[in-house]
Specification:
- The radius of gyration is 17 Å and the shape is globular.
- The protein folds into two domains: 148 residues, Rossmann fold; 62 residues.
- The strands form two sheets. Strands 5-4-1-6-7-8 form a six-stranded parallel β-sheet. It has a two-stranded antiparallel ribbon with strand order 2-3.
- It starts with 10 loop residues before the first strand and ends with a helix.
- With 229 residues, it is an alpha/beta fold.
- InterPro entries: HAD-like_hydrolase_sf, HAD-like_sf, HAD_sf, PGP-like_dom2, PhnX-like.
């Protein structure tokens, strides 16, 4: 007897900054502050920072500074600066994001939030938004072996830790950067949705593997409901 296979996306892995969290350019501001604290000119590096939005921040600093000690110092300065901006009330949900998560869960899906930030910064954002209990699981690169996007590790960690689905084709990934798209594709996710509320445009998202491009994460529950079979 053949068992009918389902491709319903019962595991949804969502990026934070730019996808569910509107940070108003705080990543660039925190990077500039970190570079200045180390005596570097942020203007010479900002293009690379923009191109690698979504990547683990320590990986970005390793590329920019080369030396591990200097990269760690830059990352610590970045996390401190970003935390100060969060504490100053400079962060808010993307309009409709919380409602979208609630709807996804009401549809019977497991929702995971991921980030390229360190755990302390991720927790500060969750606390500032009152999102500690919003989703089933939150992950940062350190929770998945230390590699962030564009590696598939956080998506696969969500798959393994939640046990929500039988195969990776039943995963939906959503994010605002090309690295979000790459991580979803490399993990084998059945749906890789780009959103236009963050760093990268439609062409960048599609070039890096987006199966769908949405105006915002608020449209994701409708997309997944229509794709269920």
């Amino acid at each position: 007897m053949t068992t009918m296979k389902t491709t319903r996306a019962n595991l949804v892995v969502l990026d934070m900054a730019g996808t569910t969290v509107a940070d108003g350019g705080l990543v660039e501001q925190a990077f500039a502050a970190a570079a200045q604290r180390l005596g570097e000119d942020p203007a010479s590096m900002i293009d690379y920072v923009r191109a690698t939005m979504g990547e683990s921040k320590i990986s970005v600093f390793r590329h920019l500074f080369g030396d591990e000690a200097r990269a760690q110092a830059a990352n610590a300065a970045f996390e401190e600066a970003y935390g100060e901006l969060v504490d100053g009330g400079r962060i808010a949900p993307v309009p409709g994001a919380r409602e979208a998560v609630d709807e996804l869960r009401a549809q019977g899906r497991t929702v995971v939030l991921t980030t390229g930030f360190a755990r302390a910064t991720q927790d500060a954002i969750l606390d500032a938004l009152g999102w500690r209990d919003l989703v089933d699981l939150t992950l940062c690169p350190a929770d998945a072996g230390g590699r962030g996007r564009p590696y598939p590790d956080m998506v696969l960690a969500a798959f393994l830790r939640t046990g929500a689905v039988d195969g990776v084709q039943q995963i939906a990934v959503a994010g605002d950067t090309s690295y979000d798209m790459l991580s979803g594709v490399r993990a084998g996710a059945g749906i890789v949705a780009g959103v236009l509320t963050g760093a990268h445009d439609k062409q960048q998202l599609q070039t890096h593997g987006a199966t769908h491009v949405l105006g915002s994460v608020a449209q994701l529950p409708g997309l997944l409901a229509g794709a269920d079979r």
